[in-house]
Amino acid sequence: MAASELSAQLWKERELLELLLFKLEEEQLLLISGKSRWISHATREVEQVMERMRAVGLARTVEVAVVAEEWGIGPDATLRELAAAAPEGIWSDIFTSHLTAMTELTGQIAEVRDTNERLLREAARSTQETLSGLTGSGPDAGVYGAAGENRPGDTGARLFDTEA
């Protein structure tokens, strides 16, 4: 039955979403701990999971079209529409469960992704300010906290040699 195959495909997609969430959280831990040496590896792993998700998403689209035709709805039906159009029985509950789980996972993924982007921006800004402070071409970089936020540095008196 096509619905069983679609459900199996949705399980694969859910597993990949969980793996993506794990990889993003792993990347976040590296960013927070300052282990920048491994960021490129973590980012590459995230990209690999995303590539696998594209392939699984394509396979799901094919399965959805088969089930949608079988149930008399459009081939580009959403999972929500499939759950609503499901014949009497368990399929409505199964597809609703998949939809709920996938919606929750994508929300969590978006949240972690946004945090990682913020941490990366802060790390880049910190690096720029540090380099600017080392070359003397910018303001004092100050001190940074554990989360990468800028804290005012020593603002005490400074001596400048103007006779040189």
UniProtKB/TrEMBL annotation:
Keyword field contains Magnesium: no
Ranges of biased composition (kind: Polar residues): 125-134
Highest rank taxon of the organism: Bacteria
Keywords: Bacterial flagellum biogenesis, Cell projection, Cilium, Flagellum
BP terms from Gene Ontology: bacterial-type flagellum assembly
Region (Disordered): 125-164
InterPro entries listed in its UniProt record: FlgN-like (IPR007809), FlgN-like_sf (IPR036679)
Gene3D superfamilies in the cross-refs: FlgN-like
Pfam families given in the database record: FlgN (PF05130)
Protein name (database record): Flagellar export chaperone FlgN
Gene assigned in the entry: flgN
